[in-house]
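Q: Hi! Curious about what Bifunctional diguanylate cyclase/phosphodiesterase looks like structurally. Here's the sequence.
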Amino acid sequence: MKVPQPTGRTRLSGRFLRRVALDELDRPVGALHRGYLFALSLLAILALANFLILRSMIAAQSQAVEITRIATNQRQTFARVARIVELILRTQDQYAGGGKWLAATREELQLLAQRVRANQTQLNAMLPPDGKSWPAWLNFRGGEDGEPAYAAVTPERLADFSRLTAQLADQIEDFSKLDAQQVEWHFSLWAPIELTLADRGALVSEVNALTHDLYAAALTGARRFSRVHELLAAVTLLTLLAELMFIFHPLLRRLGQRNRRLLVTVRKLRQVVTHDMLTGLGNRLYLNSRLQELLGEPVPKLALVLVDVRNFRSVNDVFGHHIGDQLLKTLAQRLSRVEVPSEGHVFRTGGNEFAVIFLQDLNAAALLQRAQRLRDELNEPIFEGGRELQLKVSIGAAIFEPAASKCGEDDEDVYARVGPDLMSPAPADDVSGQTAVQQQVSRLMHQAGLALRSAKASRADTVSLFGSEDEAMSLVRDALAQRLVRAVGGGDIVPYYQPIVEAGSNRLVAVEALARWITPMGVVLPLEFLLVMEEYGLLDALTDCMLQAVIADRARWQAAGLQVPRIGVNFPEVTLADRRLLARLERLSGSADLSWLSVEIVETVLLSRAHGLVEGNLKQLRRAGAHIALDDFGTGHASLTHLLSLPCDTIKIDRSFVSTMLSDHSSMLIVRGVADIATGLGIRITVEGIECAEQWAVFQAWPGVSGQGLLFGAPMPAQQLAQRLSSTHAAV
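A: Let's find out. The predicted structure is below.
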């Protein structure tokens, strides 16, 4: 038995959980994303404003520093010129010293004149006289709010300064061109220079004031820029706080609330995925997970018990699903309280299957005793809806053993009995990629399943413990199933035909196709392999194989000119529930006319969950000409009302009533009652198991009665039936 891997339902549940999580978080995360983008945009705008303010402040400071440097250079140049002129004027009366000093400093004076003009040119270039491009920081007015007092550096002020500076440069150049004799007499040249460059002269006073005012303006501009920058920083901080309080905090709070709700939803959905909604017990997925946890412990001590309610389906179908659900709840409650200690665990692993884990160190005798007490309690009548319902359970149990179980000494006996062909490897579990714990879980569940299979094969209320013989028999059954698959595909299962004779005329009016397995050891009857085929889901394939063989035999008979009677084929529930059954039969037979076919069904198909689909298919087949026969009537749980709703043409009275009716008055009454009802409803009767003339004589009084049994012929191969058809010229 494989360890239950994530099934389609489990994967779907996982995807559903993820989808719910995404849907639940989508809105708050989307709002958080939008809030984040808004906050990021606002902060980007504030950061850009801060950047522009800082860049403007740095540019203004750089410009102020450069202007101050030029003004300082100009002031130093003026000071040098003033010292030279002062030296010449003081020494001109002393042995013509003025002329000598003039000659010595002539070139320097010319260079100083050029420097004065160059400095002024740089100043004019940095401070254009037009008001449009005039630096804003030079328009500040000092003396406000604690700022230093200074005069504004206006274009007019700089224009006057530039004019005085140009005049001074001209005077210096003119003064430097005088010779020694002319120095003494040209007061008109050196006197203005001396006056201009005096400490309190107009030009020196202006350059000092200009330097002071430029410095004060730069300082004031820096302070004002700083205040604007501080204001923007405060706005940024307040913006961050506002975003946190009014955007992110509410969104994060909503996200937290959604996350908490999501956790609750995920826990509920996980409960749905791992637990049965009807009983509240863990399901097969949770059983597998719990076994992995327990077997992962250092010294695991546990036993696994599987419980199967054998007749639950019949009770559920007869009394309704509501009663069935109540029965399941009652069984779950009994399992949870009876002989299951506090450390035990109970699971519902299927529609009518339960599992119990005992976490105790139990030997085989103790486990068998506890399992039997469980069985006795579960078999107690249940009173539900005013009815007393009796359920029968089968129990299989296995004790966990660290070492792999072996088949034991009986393997050789099994091998000798079934032969090497049957002992070919059974379908193996796919354990690739499984851990050691998962393989142990797989082995334990496989062993408990084998024990349950053994209990179900014996009788309904049996308790079976896993043993070596269970594994050996499972090997045989698996190998048998493999051989049956090959037999169905290879044409080794063929139809044998048993005649159905009409009363009065003794005409062969129909035949029933019965499956026979042709093996080297002889012909194997269905009683020996049908249960295995049902267990392994091969009944539909068997029906398909039988139909193909019957259609082929019928075609050969028709080609030989024989009159072929109606052929009855048994249809299991799985085939009758096929939505494309009619199209399938038409494809196999190559015709839409199915009047040659008698569809034989048993009563249990009328009680299946798919009974609506079954009845619909039967009505379609009848419209296509097929004959509907209700086989083994009286042995199942069908109600007489089904005869009114079901499109039934023939009732086949089961051989169990026919074999005892001559000696048992009750059986005779049942047979006559069924015959009277069928005759009154216009339904034909076929009596199975007719083995002697005395039995056949009982049914001569009813019209439309046919007989089937050894009295008219045993099931025979197609060739033998062809010979009988040829010799008797039977009519359809």
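A: A fun detail: The first strand starts at residue 303 and ends at 309.
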